[in-house]
Amino acid sequence: MRTGTGTRSWPAPRWLVVALPYAWLLAFFLLPFLIVLRIALSDTARALPPYAPHWTGWAEAWSFLQALDLESFATLVGDSLYLDAYLSSLRIAATATLIALLIAFPLAYAMASAPRRWQPALLILVILPFWTSFLIRVYAWMAILRPEGVLDALLRGLGLIEEPLALMNTETAVLIGMVYSYLPFMVLPIYTSLERLDRSLLEAAADLGATPVRRFVSIVIPLARPGIYAGCFLVFVPAIGEFVIPDLLGGPETLMIGKVLWTEFFSNRDWPLASAVAILLLLILAVPLLAYQRFARKEAA
Amino acid sequence: MNRLRAPHLLALVFGIAFLYLPILVLVLYSFNASRLVTVWGGFSTRWYASLLQNQALLDAAWLSLKLALVSASVATILGLLSALALARFGRFAGRTLFAGMIAAPLVMPEVITGLALLLLFVGIDAERGFWTVTIAHVTLTACFATIVIQARLAMLDRSLEEAAQDLGATPLRVFFAITLPMIAPAILAGWLLAFTLSLDDLVLASFTSGPGSTTLPMRIYSSVRLGVTPEINAASTLLIGLVATVVVLASLLIKRDALARP
């Protein structure tokens, strides 16, 4: 892109173009987070705000800052419930990401190898479920997985099982729901990177005597790596903080941090603790985020 | 080389079946005469009829529709402005923070965004209802709209704009006569994305809505928690049908790749 053209094309109302969305995001994105941070550092209290310490103007700014404490964070670290919830969220999200990758890769590969004229239709087929309601797609699995549900009836009809599977309200159900809901996010980036794959490379390798496995490992996988990383990132990160899926498909045993935050807020009404849960979750999410950014930068260079 | 081979066909069939069978089951059972989910009691449209009697659900659907229309329109305008700023303004003061704030809601768990906005609304003592949910939805969906429009702007051939400029067109004239028509598909795609995201949102709405502003997903969620009901199947089928029709029509009308990059 040429620099300088920008200045030429937007003289007078230019600042307004930036100012409007900028102001919106400052007011409804950044400011709310500062409030969350401030409340996370307030005294734990099962009551409505304002929370101690109270802001009494700039004159007392220093004593205000001194009165902030890490009490809520101490509760978080001290109670194994929260630690377990963070860890099991990470474990469930990682497992779902891996399963999604195993299902998405063959699908994306087959899409990219399909005749050119089929590809737009295939792409729409994969994207369409993403556009339909997330909540409804999770709900669809409730009817399938519940005791005496569609899956049980089907497997019993085929004579494969005697007893009901009882998958509903288990971690397996949560994993199924996650893989299902996030699959398009994994398929699309992998397909995009495979679509660009130069087929003549594979043919050249075959001519030189490389076995199909060898061709796959040393040509397809490395070229698909940007897509795989992007897909894993797009599935892993939202899965960690997921609320709807563990709430509807999971049971009391499936501990996930998004659900803990929700309960802490709506049922226990402990806002400072809920805020601390949120801040810690953000810090955890920063790790895959930074890792992915590093990868993307290396890839671009 | 470009013939479909058996393992590829298998992967395609399995993958597509996995994506569509659950939805198909849901649609199928919305026409089930029996209340029981596993017993097929014959074809019936009774659940659609009883849906029309469910005033609470209809009210929620109407509210969600209004909410989605308003928030998608505001989000698209903000998204267009942000996309222009990011794609065309080069470096400006505070650009890094701006780009960060655009990207952040995309990866932020909804529970956190919802909690943060609620704490803001409580802090400024705003009455919670239609407008607070609208603000929440705009904040989230404007970022998606920005990404879609920005991608299109980045791909755009600048020579037409430059030619118009060289011929003496004012920047505003160039924008409305050249740039806007060229990015129109992306603007439509951004609007659609914002619309469906708003129509679908449960978490942000649960945090930011007040009494009397229960959205359709909130209503569906509260009845779904109690179990599977054929009436919700019927409502879901209508919703899926609506969204699928709009998306397929739109993708036929505009270039496919504008929709393919959500």
Q: What's this model, at a glance?
A:
Chain A has 14 helices and no strands.
Structural features:
heterodimer; A: 301 residues; mainly alpha; MetI-like fold; 14 helices; globular; disordered N terminus; B: 262 residues
Descriptive report:
The complex is a heterodimer of chains A (301) and B (262). Chain A has 301 residues and is mostly helical. Chain A is built from 14 helices and no strands. Chain A is 74% helix and 0% strand. The longest helix of chain A has 34 residues, at 80-113. Chain A is globular, with a radius of gyration of 25 Å. The two termini of chain A are 17 Å apart. With 262 residues, chain B is mainly α. Chain B has a single domain, classed as MetI-like fold (Orthogonal Bundle). Chain B starts with 5 loop residues before the first helix and ends with a helix. Classes of the chains: A mainly alpha (301), B mainly alpha (262). At the A-B interface, helix 1, helix 2, helix 5, helix 6 and helix 7 of A face helix 1, helix 3, helix 4, helix 5 and helix 6 of B.
